Hints:
The protein is of the alpha/beta class. It has 13 helices and 14 strands. The structure holds N~2~-sulfamoyl-L-arginine, calcium ion (3 copies) and zinc ion. Residues 158-159, 161, 163, 206, 292 line the site of one calcium ion (CA). GO terms for molecular function: metallocarboxypeptidase activity; zinc ion binding. It catalyses: Releases a C-terminal residue, which may be hydrophobic or positively charged.
Amino acid sequence: MGTTRRMLAAAAALLLLAGAATPAGAQPPDRVLYEVRGTDSAQRDTIARSGADVLGVRDGTVTVVASPAQARELRAGGLPLSEIGDVDALLAERGAGKRTAGDFPAGDEGYHTYAELSEELSAAAREHPGITRLSSVGTSAQGRALHLLKISDNAGTDEAEPEVLFTCNQHAREHLTTEMCLHIVQRFTEGYGSDPAVTNFVDTREILVIPSVNPDGAEYDIAGGEYRGWRKNRQGAGTDLNRNWDYRWGCCGGSSGNPASDTYRGPSPFSAPETRAVAGFVDSRVVDGTQQITAHIDFHTYSELVLWPFGYTHDDTAEGMTAEEAQRFAEVGRKMAASNGYTPQQSSDLYVTDGTVNDWMWGKHKILSFTFEMYPRGAGGLDGFYPPDEQIAPQTARNDEAVDILLAEAGA
Ligand code: 0X9
Ligand code: CA
Ligand code: CA
Ligand code: CA
Ligand code: ZN
Protein backbone atom coordinates (compact mmCIF):
# COMPACT_ATOMS: atom_id res chain seq x y z
CA MET A 1 0.00 0.00 0.00
CA GLY A 2 1.43 3.41 -0.98
CA THR A 3 1.58 6.33 1.42
CA THR A 4 -1.41 8.10 -0.10
CA ARG A 5 -3.51 4.97 -0.09
CA ARG A 6 -2.45 4.23 3.48
CA MET A 7 -3.51 7.75 4.55
CA LEU A 8 -6.83 7.34 2.76
CA ALA A 9 -7.35 4.02 4.50
CA ALA A 10 -6.54 5.58 7.86
CA ALA A 11 -8.92 8.46 7.17
CA ALA A 12 -11.65 6.02 6.13
CA ALA A 13 -11.08 4.05 9.32
CA LEU A 14 -11.38 7.21 11.42
CA LEU A 15 -14.59 8.17 9.67
CA LEU A 16 -16.01 4.70 10.24
CA LEU A 17 -14.89 4.77 13.84
CA ALA A 18 -16.33 8.25 14.43
CA GLY A 19 -19.52 7.27 12.63
CA ALA A 20 -20.01 4.17 14.74
CA ALA A 21 -19.00 5.75 18.03
CA THR A 22 -21.65 8.49 18.14
CA PRO A 23 -24.43 7.66 15.73
CA ALA A 24 -27.17 10.21 16.41
CA GLY A 25 -30.24 8.42 17.72
CA ALA A 26 -28.88 4.96 16.83
CA GLN A 27 -29.12 1.77 18.89
CA PRO A 28 -26.28 0.98 21.27
CA PRO A 29 -23.72 -1.32 19.61
CA ASP A 30 -24.66 -5.02 19.88
CA ARG A 31 -21.18 -6.17 20.61
CA VAL A 32 -18.69 -4.42 22.83
CA LEU A 33 -15.12 -5.48 23.58
CA TYR A 34 -14.21 -5.52 27.28
CA GLU A 35 -11.24 -6.37 29.42
CA VAL A 36 -11.56 -7.90 32.90
CA ARG A 37 -8.35 -7.82 34.93
CA GLY A 38 -7.19 -10.06 37.73
CA THR A 39 -9.74 -12.85 37.27
CA ASP A 40 -9.59 -16.22 39.00
CA SER A 41 -10.83 -19.40 37.34
CA ALA A 42 -14.27 -19.26 39.05
CA GLN A 43 -14.78 -15.76 37.61
CA ARG A 44 -13.72 -16.98 34.17
CA ASP A 45 -16.27 -19.78 34.43
CA THR A 46 -18.92 -17.17 35.28
CA ILE A 47 -17.95 -15.19 32.19
CA ALA A 48 -18.06 -18.30 30.00
CA ARG A 49 -21.40 -19.36 31.53
CA SER A 50 -23.00 -16.03 30.54
CA GLY A 51 -22.54 -17.02 26.89
CA ALA A 52 -20.18 -14.09 26.26
CA ASP A 53 -17.35 -14.66 23.82
CA VAL A 54 -13.97 -15.06 25.56
CA LEU A 55 -11.30 -14.06 23.04
CA GLY A 56 -8.23 -14.61 25.13
CA VAL A 57 -6.86 -14.94 28.63
CA ARG A 58 -3.42 -13.81 29.72
CA ASP A 59 -2.18 -13.59 33.34
CA GLY A 60 -5.75 -13.37 34.63
CA THR A 61 -6.76 -10.63 32.18
CA VAL A 62 -9.73 -11.74 30.08
CA THR A 63 -10.61 -10.13 26.76
CA VAL A 64 -14.28 -10.71 26.09
CA VAL A 65 -16.97 -9.62 23.66
CA ALA A 66 -20.39 -9.23 25.28
CA SER A 67 -23.87 -8.14 24.29
CA PRO A 68 -25.45 -5.37 26.40
CA ALA A 69 -27.51 -7.99 28.28
CA GLN A 70 -24.47 -10.17 28.96
CA ALA A 71 -22.46 -7.14 30.14
CA ARG A 72 -25.27 -6.10 32.51
CA GLU A 73 -25.47 -9.61 33.94
CA LEU A 74 -21.71 -9.83 34.48
CA ARG A 75 -21.48 -6.39 36.09
CA ALA A 76 -24.46 -7.20 38.33
CA GLY A 77 -22.46 -10.25 39.42
CA GLY A 78 -19.60 -7.95 40.47
CA LEU A 79 -17.20 -8.42 37.57
CA PRO A 80 -15.27 -5.24 36.75
CA LEU A 81 -15.72 -4.93 32.98
CA SER A 82 -13.74 -2.11 31.40
CA GLU A 83 -14.84 -1.10 27.95
CA ILE A 84 -12.29 -1.19 25.13
CA GLY A 85 -14.59 -0.30 22.24
CA ASP A 86 -17.36 -1.18 19.84
CA VAL A 87 -16.49 -4.39 18.00
CA ASP A 88 -17.83 -3.40 14.60
CA ALA A 89 -15.93 -0.12 14.66
CA LEU A 90 -12.72 -1.88 15.68
CA LEU A 91 -13.13 -4.41 12.87
CA ALA A 92 -13.80 -1.68 10.32
CA GLU A 93 -10.48 -0.14 11.34
CA ARG A 94 -8.61 -3.41 10.81
CA GLY A 95 -10.14 -4.22 7.41
CA ALA A 96 -10.20 -0.74 5.91
CA GLY A 97 -8.60 -0.39 2.52
CA LYS A 98 -8.97 -1.82 -0.93
CA ARG A 99 -9.93 -5.41 -1.46
CA THR A 100 -11.23 -7.78 -4.06
CA ALA A 101 -14.71 -9.08 -3.20
CA GLY A 102 -14.49 -12.47 -1.51
CA ASP A 103 -10.76 -12.18 -0.89
CA PHE A 104 -8.89 -11.18 2.24
CA PRO A 105 -8.31 -7.44 2.65
CA ALA A 106 -5.45 -5.73 0.84
CA GLY A 107 -2.19 -6.70 2.50
CA ASP A 108 -3.62 -9.99 3.84
CA GLU A 109 -3.82 -11.85 0.52
CA GLY A 110 -1.33 -14.42 1.84
CA TYR A 111 -4.27 -16.06 3.64
CA HIS A 112 -6.16 -18.68 1.63
CA THR A 113 -9.83 -18.34 0.76
CA TYR A 114 -11.80 -21.58 0.48
CA ALA A 115 -11.27 -21.66 -3.31
CA GLU A 116 -7.53 -21.12 -2.87
CA LEU A 117 -7.34 -23.75 -0.15
CA SER A 118 -9.15 -26.26 -2.37
CA GLU A 119 -6.72 -25.53 -5.20
CA GLU A 120 -3.64 -25.92 -2.94
CA LEU A 121 -4.88 -29.31 -1.75
CA SER A 122 -5.58 -30.45 -5.31
CA ALA A 123 -2.10 -29.32 -6.33
CA ALA A 124 -0.48 -31.18 -3.41
CA ALA A 125 -2.38 -34.35 -4.37
CA ARG A 126 -1.54 -33.92 -8.08
CA GLU A 127 2.15 -33.26 -7.50
CA HIS A 128 2.65 -36.00 -4.88
CA PRO A 129 0.30 -38.79 -6.00
CA GLY A 130 2.23 -41.63 -4.30
CA ILE A 131 2.01 -40.21 -0.80
CA THR A 132 -1.36 -38.42 -0.80
CA ARG A 133 -5.03 -39.17 -1.03
CA LEU A 134 -7.50 -36.28 -1.23
CA SER A 135 -11.11 -36.85 -0.19
CA SER A 136 -13.66 -35.24 2.07
CA VAL A 137 -15.35 -36.25 5.31
CA GLY A 138 -18.65 -34.69 4.24
CA THR A 139 -20.12 -31.29 3.52
CA SER A 140 -20.82 -28.12 5.48
CA ALA A 141 -24.28 -26.66 6.14
CA GLN A 142 -23.98 -24.66 2.91
CA GLY A 143 -22.64 -27.61 0.94
CA ARG A 144 -18.89 -26.99 0.84
CA ALA A 145 -16.69 -30.09 0.88
CA LEU A 146 -14.88 -30.67 4.17
CA HIS A 147 -11.53 -31.63 2.64
CA LEU A 148 -9.40 -34.41 4.06
CA LEU A 149 -5.85 -35.00 2.87
CA LYS A 150 -4.13 -38.22 3.91
CA ILE A 151 -0.32 -38.21 3.68
CA SER A 152 1.56 -41.51 3.94
CA ASP A 153 3.62 -43.89 1.86
CA ASN A 154 1.20 -46.07 -0.14
CA ALA A 155 -1.51 -43.53 0.66
CA GLY A 156 -4.09 -45.51 -1.30
CA THR A 157 -3.73 -48.46 1.09
CA ASP A 158 -4.92 -48.58 4.70
CA GLU A 159 -1.70 -49.74 6.33
CA ALA A 160 -1.10 -50.75 9.93
CA GLU A 161 0.56 -47.44 10.88
CA PRO A 162 -0.45 -45.06 13.68
CA GLU A 163 -2.89 -42.49 12.32
CA VAL A 164 -2.56 -38.88 13.47
CA LEU A 165 -5.25 -36.27 12.86
CA PHE A 166 -4.86 -32.51 12.53
CA THR A 167 -7.98 -30.32 12.38
CA CYS A 168 -8.15 -26.57 11.85
CA ASN A 169 -10.60 -23.67 11.59
CA GLN A 170 -13.49 -24.94 13.75
CA HIS A 171 -13.86 -21.24 14.55
CA ALA A 172 -14.47 -19.15 11.45
CA ARG A 173 -12.30 -16.11 12.23
CA GLU A 174 -9.25 -18.16 13.29
CA HIS A 175 -7.80 -18.04 9.77
CA LEU A 176 -4.20 -18.54 10.89
CA THR A 177 -5.14 -22.13 11.81
CA THR A 178 -6.16 -23.00 8.25
CA GLU A 179 -2.68 -21.86 7.26
CA MET A 180 -1.26 -24.13 9.99
CA CYS A 181 -2.92 -27.21 8.48
CA LEU A 182 -1.83 -26.14 5.00
CA HIS A 183 1.73 -25.75 6.29
CA ILE A 184 1.59 -29.32 7.64
CA VAL A 185 0.41 -30.49 4.20
CA GLN A 186 3.19 -28.65 2.40
CA ARG A 187 5.93 -29.69 4.80
CA PHE A 188 5.11 -33.41 4.65
CA THR A 189 4.59 -33.50 0.89
CA GLU A 190 7.35 -31.21 -0.36
CA GLY A 191 9.88 -32.47 2.21
CA TYR A 192 9.34 -36.13 1.41
CA GLY A 193 12.53 -37.76 0.10
CA SER A 194 14.80 -34.85 1.06
CA ASP A 195 14.09 -34.11 4.75
CA PRO A 196 14.94 -37.31 6.70
CA ALA A 197 12.58 -36.61 9.65
CA VAL A 198 9.68 -35.81 7.31
CA THR A 199 10.39 -38.87 5.19
CA ASN A 200 10.48 -41.11 8.24
CA PHE A 201 7.11 -39.85 9.53
CA VAL A 202 5.46 -40.16 6.12
CA ASP A 203 6.77 -43.74 5.85
CA THR A 204 5.68 -44.81 9.34
CA ARG A 205 2.49 -42.82 10.04
CA GLU A 206 -0.77 -42.00 8.31
CA ILE A 207 -1.10 -38.23 8.61
CA LEU A 208 -4.70 -36.98 8.26
CA VAL A 209 -5.33 -33.26 7.76
CA ILE A 210 -8.70 -31.46 7.73
CA PRO A 211 -7.66 -27.84 7.05
CA SER A 212 -11.09 -26.24 7.43
CA VAL A 213 -13.82 -27.73 9.60
CA ASN A 214 -15.88 -24.54 9.18
CA PRO A 215 -15.49 -23.26 5.60
CA ASP A 216 -18.93 -21.55 5.56
CA GLY A 217 -18.04 -19.47 8.60
CA ALA A 218 -14.57 -18.63 7.28
CA GLU A 219 -15.95 -17.43 3.93
CA TYR A 220 -18.67 -15.42 5.67
CA ASP A 221 -16.05 -13.79 7.88
CA ILE A 222 -14.24 -12.31 4.87
CA ALA A 223 -17.17 -11.85 2.48
CA GLY A 224 -18.30 -8.41 3.63
CA GLY A 225 -16.56 -5.08 3.37
CA GLU A 226 -14.52 -5.87 6.45
CA TYR A 227 -13.66 -8.75 8.76
CA ARG A 228 -16.77 -9.74 10.68
CA GLY A 229 -15.21 -11.35 13.74
CA TRP A 230 -17.48 -14.37 13.09
CA ARG A 231 -16.93 -17.51 15.19
CA LYS A 232 -19.73 -20.03 14.56
CA ASN A 233 -20.90 -22.06 11.58
CA ARG A 234 -23.61 -20.73 9.20
CA GLN A 235 -26.54 -22.94 10.11
CA GLY A 236 -29.40 -20.69 11.23
CA ALA A 237 -28.04 -18.17 13.73
CA GLY A 238 -24.88 -20.27 13.89
CA THR A 239 -23.65 -23.01 16.20
CA ASP A 240 -20.32 -22.91 18.02
CA LEU A 241 -18.83 -26.11 16.60
CA ASN A 242 -16.53 -26.47 19.58
CA ARG A 243 -19.54 -26.78 21.91
CA ASN A 244 -21.49 -29.23 19.70
CA TRP A 245 -19.55 -32.51 20.28
CA ASP A 246 -21.36 -35.40 21.86
CA TYR A 247 -19.45 -35.96 25.07
CA ARG A 248 -21.15 -34.51 28.15
CA TRP A 249 -22.73 -32.02 25.73
CA GLY A 250 -24.12 -28.99 27.56
CA CYS A 251 -23.41 -30.63 30.91
CA CYS A 252 -21.63 -28.06 32.92
CA GLY A 253 -22.27 -24.42 32.17
CA GLY A 254 -19.51 -24.37 29.57
CA SER A 255 -21.73 -23.44 26.63
CA SER A 256 -24.91 -21.48 25.91
CA GLY A 257 -28.44 -22.62 25.05
CA ASN A 258 -29.20 -19.24 23.47
CA PRO A 259 -28.90 -19.31 19.65
CA ALA A 260 -27.75 -15.67 19.67
CA SER A 261 -24.75 -16.50 21.85
CA ASP A 262 -21.32 -16.95 20.34
CA THR A 263 -20.97 -20.15 22.37
CA TYR A 264 -24.34 -21.63 21.36
CA ARG A 265 -24.09 -25.43 21.61
CA GLY A 266 -26.82 -26.12 19.04
CA PRO A 267 -30.20 -27.82 19.68
CA SER A 268 -28.66 -31.28 20.12
CA PRO A 269 -25.22 -32.91 20.07
CA PHE A 270 -23.82 -33.13 16.54
CA SER A 271 -26.66 -30.96 15.21
CA ALA A 272 -24.03 -29.25 13.04
CA PRO A 273 -23.18 -31.13 9.83
CA GLU A 274 -19.53 -30.14 10.24
CA THR A 275 -18.99 -31.77 13.65
CA ARG A 276 -21.12 -34.76 12.62
CA ALA A 277 -18.98 -35.27 9.51
CA VAL A 278 -15.65 -35.09 11.33
CA ALA A 279 -16.96 -37.35 14.11
CA GLY A 280 -18.31 -39.81 11.53
CA PHE A 281 -14.89 -39.97 9.95
CA VAL A 282 -13.17 -40.57 13.29
CA ASP A 283 -15.77 -43.24 14.20
CA SER A 284 -15.03 -44.90 10.85
CA ARG A 285 -11.39 -45.30 11.83
CA VAL A 286 -12.34 -47.99 14.35
CA VAL A 287 -11.12 -51.10 12.55
CA ASP A 288 -11.71 -54.51 14.13
CA GLY A 289 -12.62 -52.80 17.37
CA THR A 290 -9.46 -50.65 17.50
CA GLN A 291 -9.40 -46.90 16.90
CA GLN A 292 -6.57 -46.29 14.41
CA ILE A 293 -6.12 -42.60 15.22
CA THR A 294 -3.94 -42.32 18.30
CA ALA A 295 -3.20 -38.59 18.47
CA HIS A 296 -4.82 -35.31 17.43
CA ILE A 297 -4.33 -31.56 17.51
CA ASP A 298 -7.17 -29.09 16.94
CA PHE A 299 -5.70 -25.68 16.12
CA HIS A 300 -7.27 -22.43 17.37
CA THR A 301 -6.17 -18.85 17.94
CA TYR A 302 -5.19 -17.10 20.10
CA SER A 303 -3.20 -16.98 23.41
CA GLU A 304 -0.25 -19.34 22.70
CA LEU A 305 -1.43 -22.25 24.80
CA VAL A 306 -1.23 -26.04 24.69
CA LEU A 307 -4.45 -27.42 26.23
CA TRP A 308 -5.60 -30.93 27.10
CA PRO A 309 -8.85 -32.51 28.34
CA PHE A 310 -11.04 -32.58 30.21
CA GLY A 311 -12.54 -29.16 29.63
CA TYR A 312 -15.91 -29.86 31.24
CA THR A 313 -14.48 -30.19 34.75
CA HIS A 314 -11.73 -28.60 36.83
CA ASP A 315 -10.87 -32.03 38.21
CA ASP A 316 -7.60 -33.45 36.89
CA THR A 317 -8.98 -36.98 37.02
CA ALA A 318 -12.54 -38.08 36.27
CA GLU A 319 -14.44 -41.03 34.87
CA GLY A 320 -12.43 -41.87 31.77
CA MET A 321 -9.26 -40.05 32.91
CA THR A 322 -7.00 -41.86 35.34
CA ALA A 323 -4.12 -40.17 37.14
CA GLU A 324 -1.68 -41.97 34.80
CA GLU A 325 -3.56 -40.75 31.73
CA ALA A 326 -3.71 -37.17 33.04
CA GLN A 327 0.02 -37.44 33.70
CA ARG A 328 0.70 -38.51 30.10
CA PHE A 329 -1.33 -35.57 28.74
CA ALA A 330 0.61 -33.19 30.96
CA GLU A 331 3.97 -34.68 29.98
CA VAL A 332 3.36 -34.61 26.23
CA GLY A 333 1.67 -31.19 26.49
CA ARG A 334 4.59 -29.71 28.39
CA LYS A 335 7.11 -31.19 25.97
CA MET A 336 5.31 -29.68 22.98
CA ALA A 337 4.96 -26.34 24.79
CA ALA A 338 8.68 -26.32 25.57
CA SER A 339 9.33 -26.56 21.83
CA ASN A 340 7.14 -23.63 20.73
CA GLY A 341 7.14 -21.38 23.79
CA TYR A 342 3.41 -21.77 24.45
CA THR A 343 1.96 -22.23 27.95
CA PRO A 344 0.79 -25.77 28.80
CA GLN A 345 -2.33 -26.40 30.93
CA GLN A 346 -5.47 -28.49 31.33
CA SER A 347 -8.09 -26.70 29.23
CA SER A 348 -10.47 -26.05 32.13
CA ASP A 349 -7.70 -24.05 33.87
CA LEU A 350 -8.65 -21.41 31.30
CA TYR A 351 -12.42 -21.73 31.76
CA VAL A 352 -14.87 -24.63 31.76
CA THR A 353 -16.23 -25.67 28.36
CA ASP A 354 -18.51 -28.55 27.45
CA GLY A 355 -19.07 -30.25 24.12
CA THR A 356 -15.53 -29.59 22.86
CA VAL A 357 -13.62 -31.72 20.40
CA ASN A 358 -10.87 -32.77 22.82
CA ASP A 359 -13.31 -34.12 25.41
CA TRP A 360 -15.03 -36.20 22.72
CA MET A 361 -11.81 -37.47 21.07
CA TRP A 362 -10.45 -38.63 24.42
CA GLY A 363 -13.71 -39.47 26.18
CA LYS A 364 -15.09 -41.59 23.35
CA HIS A 365 -11.99 -42.80 21.50
CA LYS A 366 -9.02 -42.46 23.87
CA ILE A 367 -7.25 -40.33 21.26
CA LEU A 368 -4.44 -38.20 22.74
CA SER A 369 -6.15 -34.94 21.77
CA PHE A 370 -4.82 -31.41 22.29
CA THR A 371 -5.94 -27.88 21.47
CA PHE A 372 -3.25 -25.41 20.39
CA GLU A 373 -4.13 -21.75 20.75
CA MET A 374 -1.73 -20.09 18.32
CA TYR A 375 -0.23 -16.60 17.98
CA PRO A 376 -0.56 -13.96 19.30
CA ARG A 377 0.07 -14.38 23.02
CA GLY A 378 -1.34 -11.11 24.26
CA ALA A 379 -4.88 -9.92 24.80
CA GLY A 380 -5.12 -7.98 21.55
CA GLY A 381 -8.92 -7.87 21.26
CA LEU A 382 -10.44 -8.78 17.90
CA ASP A 383 -7.15 -7.86 16.17
CA GLY A 384 -5.68 -11.00 17.68
CA PHE A 385 -7.65 -13.05 15.14
CA TYR A 386 -6.23 -11.10 12.21
CA PRO A 387 -2.44 -11.03 12.38
CA PRO A 388 -0.83 -9.65 9.21
CA ASP A 389 -0.11 -12.34 6.65
CA GLU A 390 3.64 -11.84 7.24
CA GLN A 391 3.05 -13.86 10.43
CA ILE A 392 1.84 -16.96 8.56
CA ALA A 393 5.28 -18.41 7.78
CA PRO A 394 6.94 -17.86 11.19
CA GLN A 395 3.90 -18.79 13.28
CA THR A 396 3.16 -22.02 11.43
CA ALA A 397 6.81 -23.16 11.25
CA ARG A 398 7.01 -22.46 14.98
CA ASN A 399 4.91 -25.60 15.54
CA ASP A 400 7.02 -27.97 13.40
CA GLU A 401 8.78 -29.51 16.38
CA ALA A 402 5.55 -29.83 18.39
CA VAL A 403 3.89 -31.61 15.45
CA ASP A 404 6.88 -33.96 15.26
CA ILE A 405 6.68 -34.65 19.00
CA LEU A 406 3.04 -35.67 18.61
CA LEU A 407 3.80 -37.83 15.56
CA ALA A 408 6.50 -39.59 17.59
CA GLU A 409 4.16 -40.04 20.60
CA ALA A 410 1.50 -41.50 18.32
CA GLY A 411 3.71 -44.55 17.91
CA ALA A 412 4.32 -44.97 21.64
O1 0X9 B 1 -13.35 -21.78 23.69
C1 0X9 B 1 -12.85 -22.51 22.82
O2 0X9 B 1 -13.51 -23.25 22.09
C2 0X9 B 1 -11.34 -22.51 22.64
N1 0X9 B 1 -10.83 -21.16 22.69
S1 0X9 B 1 -11.15 -20.12 21.48
O3 0X9 B 1 -10.72 -18.80 21.91
N2 0X9 B 1 -10.29 -20.48 20.21
O4 0X9 B 1 -12.55 -20.20 21.17
C3 0X9 B 1 -10.69 -23.25 23.79
C4 0X9 B 1 -11.20 -24.60 24.03
C5 0X9 B 1 -10.37 -25.28 25.04
N3 0X9 B 1 -11.14 -25.80 26.12
C6 0X9 B 1 -11.34 -25.13 27.31
N4 0X9 B 1 -10.92 -23.92 27.52
N5 0X9 B 1 -11.96 -25.78 28.28
CA1 CA C 1 0.75 -8.23 4.37
CA1 CA D 1 1.59 -45.82 4.70
CA1 CA E 1 -4.19 -47.45 8.86
ZN1 ZN F 1 -11.18 -21.24 18.55
